[in-house]
């Protein structure tokens, strides 16, 4: 049967293009989490440099350098998505993912002698990581935007939530890939000698220092190539097509998804909200509209979840677990399961309740870590607290923040507004990720563990603030079309 003649549209067609789009989310998760398995080997490699001292500061910056690219990518995502389209922007992201994976695996490529650590090589490695970060920044903004714009409003929240599932699944995949790459080899033993300076212990496995981390970064080339090829076969977003005057093409895409009759209704609604695309500015609908989007992004990162996701193996090692990679994989499985909770409840419970309950759960988990981290007899309680912390994020701020960012802004400013909101997300991601190691190791007196409880206590406090913010300011978007957002924000603005 011709899908264009289906009066109710084709769900199989919709799901197929959404599944291709969420591969961008998988690469997002893969690229940001690959560092978790590679960072110790990478640290040990650069500790062998003779022309400079590789300190905790260098390592914190190197571990989070991709986030600088994420800030750049997200900041330009609105310009690219509005001028080139959602589809072409995602193709660019895929190419950047591939180049970054290759360059991070072989940063000496064409320039330096392989296997000799030095400062210039560190700069080149970070350059390739930043390139990948630009790809992540583009994908993080445009993937949920694209999914939100092609999805019917009744299942939009569920479908956008699959993007977060793909992010977490990508992280789980890379945990497992890193585990397989590591095999019988062991992570290098690194000892602090004070003032942010470290040394590699002599009995450390040389393979993980010279080779293991390269394979971990290079493994991303496979999903990056797959995504770049497949995204070429999905249609452009109908809302972008309307914005550039391609009404017939937009109607064709809408008909395949929603059915012939419904496509004309939706097209008319889109046209009605798109007539001022060229004249409306970012703050046309009031500053609160943009503020809510920005603060959703800020809180998603300020609650500190990426301090757990990026440094999971190191945290479990500090807690005394012998096989930290296995525990990290188990945590990834828990994250997957609780992301599914969000996917299957977001259209029933709504966005706000999930965010508020998740914030409270995260606060409890973070406080549990703060109170038990230094006590070896409570190691299992500490691990459980980390999992409560992580699981609470996965059914709330993880997916629901992306859902809201994809749907809360009016059509005419969505590209620019999403870019601003997601740029703030990556700025705070960078702040949290790069500050975690120095904060975590902070001591007032030698060996007092001040940084351990202070860091997670601070995250618990931010989680409470996040719950209050959602309760007071965030609108419920369940059951509303993207076109309804125009009226919602105009009504709020006029009431001021």
Characterize the structure shown.
With 496 residues, this protein is mainly α. Helix content is 74%, strand content 2%. It is built from 20 helices and 2 strands. A two-stranded antiparallel ribbon has the order 1-2. A hairpin with a 2-residue loop joins strand 1 and strand 2. Helix 4 packs antiparallel against helix 8 and helix 15 runs antiparallel to helix 17. The termini are far apart. The relative contact order is 0.15. The N terminus is likely disordered.
Strand content: under 5%
Helix and strand run:
HHHHHHEEHHHHHHHHHHHHHH
Task: State the separation between the terminal residues, measured CA to CA.
Answer: 53 Å
Specify the helix fraction band: over 70%
Instruction: Tell me, rounded to a whole number, the average pLDDT.
Output: 86
Summarize the structure.
The protein is mostly helical. It is built from 20 helices and 2 strands. Helix 14 packs antiparallel against helix 15 (351-372).
Distinctive features:
496 residues; mainly alpha; two-stranded antiparallel sheet; 20 helices; 74% helix
Task: Compile the SSE list and pairings.
Layout lengths: L10 H36 L9 H8 L2 H18 L2 H20 L13 H32 L5 H27 L7 E5 L2 E4 L5 H13 L2 H10 L7 H6 L3 H12 L1 H15 L12 H16 L2 H14 L5 H26 L1 H22 L6 H16 L2 H11 L6 H27 L9 H24 L10 H12 L1
Antiparallel strand pairs: 1-2
